[in-house]
Amino acid sequence: MVQFEKIETLSEDLKIYLNTNIKLVKQEFTAKYSVILSDLISYVLIGLAGLFFLLFLSLMAGFYLSELLDSTFLGFAIVAGFYLLISVILYLIRDKWLKKPIRDKIIRKSFKKK
Questions:
Q1: How many CB atoms lie within 10 A of CB 34?
Q2: What is the domain range of residue 26?
Q3: How many domains, in total, are found in the chain?
Q4: I need a labelling partner for 55 at 20 to 30 A (CA). Which of 4, 28, 85, 99 fits?
């Protein structure tokens, strides 16, 4: 009888231990990925504000160049060409300068201690 009670107690203790560990893993996961998600949301909002700034700056440059060149088409074509050039450059350097740093930052945040 004593042996059976010890096994039963051990079984209950093991269940409690496993449940506690599962809860701990869930809390750690939630804490780490809530930081990553909040960073992502804040970067998106900052990016949107920057995008609006860039949009209006581009419009301003397009109209300014249009007046200088006496051609609306040429003014805006120059601005569009500038963005095409930037896009090609970003595409060519995306792995080294964009993907890898972003991936590394996510990994660092994931394994960062409190």
A1: 10
A2: 2-111
A3: 1
A4: 99
